[in-house]
Amino acid sequence: MSDLAERLRLVQARIEAAATLHGRKAHELTLVVVSKFHPAQLVLDLMALGVNNFGENRDQEAKPKAQAVSENLGKFEAPNWHFVGQLQSNKARSVLSYSKTIHSLDRLSLLKELAKIGQTANVFIELNLTDDQNRGGVAPKDLEFFAETVLQVEHLNLLGVMGVAALNRDPSIDFETIQKCSLQLQKLSPTSTAISAGMSADYEKAIGFGATHLRIGTAITGNRA
Ligand SMILES: *Cc1c(COP(=O)(O)O)cnc(C)c1O
Fold first, then answer.
1. What pLDDT, in 10s, does the model give residues 135-192?
2. How far is the CA of 199 from the centre of ligand 1 (A)?
3. Which of 169, 189, 160, 186 has the alpha carbon at shortest distance from 101?
4. 53 lines ligand 1 (CB under 6 A)
5. Is the minimum distance from the CB of 197 to ligand 1 under 6 angstroms?
6. CATH number for the domain running over 3-221
7. Diameter of the chain measured on Cα atoms
8. Pocket residue to mutate for ligand 1, from 84, 101, 221, most atoms within 8 A of Cβ
9. pTM score, two decimals?
């Protein structure tokens, strides 16, 4: 087995084990392999190993990569591209040309831009789990109001909430907040049940707090090229 295949299998085994531990079903979890800093070939190699969800955080890098992948699909179906990074409004149209799922809907100005573009897309509301107002994301106390506004845009399908755990404390604290926010959101929108949480260092913990979309980079891809 290649190193890449071995890392993928190890992460998949750990996802299975964590799901079992927490009484959840591994097949209900979506593994999004974050392929940033890595070339299109790595995406194609992972597709050959059965991965079909990829995450990127910069349009400048993602767009040509998605293009290169689409030109070299061979027998494979096009993968799903998830946009997980902060999205500048002036890049939104470009991102929607290859990605149908935005994990980082984090502010009203971006929502307005997506509304204006009018294209169907899946979105997660990104939460700001810090006290720093300058960080991207919607503060938990503002979630309800923001979600009401998102729900008014008919062509956006609100999947759920997304969060990145702070580095300087136990990620469980933030995952618990994300889970509470998810329950709050489901009162307004019962179908918005998804939780995008968990990265290489903390995905097993995230599974314990209801994560449905795991955004895992280096644990699978190795260090950046
Ligand atoms: C890079 C990135 C990830 C993956 O991080 P790893 O630690 O490499 O698993 C997940 N989510 C976001 C938003 C990222 O930018």
1. 889 999 999 999 999 999 999 999 999 999 998 899 999 999 999 999 999 999 999 9
2. 6
3. 160
4. no
5. no
6. 3.20.20.10
7. 49
8. 84
9. 0.97
